[in-house]
Amino acid sequence: MDTTVAIVGGGPAGLLLARLLHRRGIGCVVLESRDRDYVERRQRAGILEQGTADVLRACGAGDRMDREGEVHDGIELRFDGRSHRLDFPALTGGRRVTLYAQTEMVKDLVALQLQEGPPLLFEATARAVEGIETDRPRVRFTHGGRERTLTAEYVVGCDGSYGVARDAVPPGAQRRYERAYPYSWLGILADVPPSCEELIYAHSPRGFALHSMRSRTVSRLYLQVPNGTDPADWPDERIWIELAARFAVDTGWRLEPGPITAKAVLPMRSLVIEPLRCGRLFLAGDAAHIVPPTGAKGLNLAVSDVVVLARAFGHWAATGSTDLLDGYSETCLRRVWRAEHFSYFMTSTLHADPDQNPFQTRLQLEQLDRITSSGHAAAELAENYTGLPLSSG
Ligand code: DHB
């Protein structure tokens, strides 16, 4: 097999890149190791920045999002028994977010790709990326029990943080910046109408909790748990009691419990690999950087990477110039580090570190108080949450 751009990984980054390249008339093939059902069920976050929603619309993948997604104009912060709303449009000059689950966006992109192309192979397991210093790099993969090779002009690794693409980079050619967090999230889906209109981020002495949603009848909630937690130690009743305690405010608000349909523990880490390119291999999305989930930046960063990359490939295909491809890493890293800082900030301000002393807790509460009493501090959070414009890099 031979193509212009070989894309390893059919998650949101790989699928959207394929869509954007296809619309520029650039050939590509997507190799995804899992089957379609798995890819379409994978539960991830659900907040799309304004720029992410705009990109999906512009490439013809926004119809269902516009029908079924929910536009959110703010979030609620809870701490110290108090609740405070941040009004995004007022704080940012009109920016909002859209609640539309990543898994729904993936379904939309898969359906479009299977209808209109380019080729998307499921259960095509990349084994190795080779020849990235040559002008014909290739991906060795297995599909249908056969060993195959996909040769291309460029390879893009969109295969997540445990993918094989980045193994092609020689030792010493990239630098890793990494941080692990001393806590995880227990995430649940429940068949119960959300107890709120907008997301609630709660700081409490018992640890962090987040109330999100998937629809008017399905709630998505998370609670901070120790690393290594076994979901089996959290029967449904224990989860609802703990969530209610963490969200408690003295306004009469109540958390409605309901049947829990999914439970999973998510570890948290920050990671950036620099540069995002080595020879003819580019990395995008989780293959290049990871953020802890607080603030829901992971998917949005993947989208901004592939927007920059698709533009660069378009420029190369139209003019033969590699200028934008050469600038890919630097352009993306500015936005990546901003999101890394924001995700770290949200995480460390809202969670209870097991080694935290009372002084540090007071500092967290002071920071939350600042955000809820200063327009400047609130605007800083709101701008980051709704996302900086894509064109700023
Ligand atoms: C969701 C996840 C997040 O990490 C977040 O900050 C907001 C929402 C979600 O799954 O809906």
What is this entry, summarized?
With about 400 residues, the protein is an alpha+beta fold.
Layout of secondary structure:
Blueprint lengths: L4 E4 L3 H12 L4 E4 L4 H6 L5 E3 H9 L4 H6 L1 E3 L1 E6 L2 E6 H5 L4 E3 L2 H15 L3 E2 L2 E7 L7 E6 L2 E6 L2 E4 L17 E16 L9 E3 L6 E5 L5 E7 L10 H12 L12 E15 L2 E2 L2 E3 L5 E2 L7 H22 L3 H28 L7 H16 L1 H12 L7
Helix pairs in contact: 1-6, 1-8, 8-9, 10-11
Bound molecules: 3,4-dihydroxybenzoic acid.
Q: What is the third-level CATH name, the topology of the largest domain?
A: FAD/NAD(P)-binding domain
Uncertain parts: none
CATH superfamily of the largest domain: FAD/NAD(P)-binding domain
Give the domain tally: 2
Approximate shape: globular
**What's the total number of strands?**
20
Strand-residue fraction? Answer: 25-35%
Q: Under the CATH scheme, which architecture of the largest domain would be assigned?
A: 3-Layer(bba) Sandwich
What's the end-to-end separation, in Å? Answer: 34 Å
Number of helices: 11
Briefly note the structural class of the backbone: alpha+beta
Largest β-sheet summary: 8 strands, mixed
Summarize the amount of helix as a percent range: 25-40%
- Overall residue-averaged pLDDT value: 96
Q: Which ligands, by name, code or SMILES, are bound?
A: 3,4-dihydroxybenzoic acid
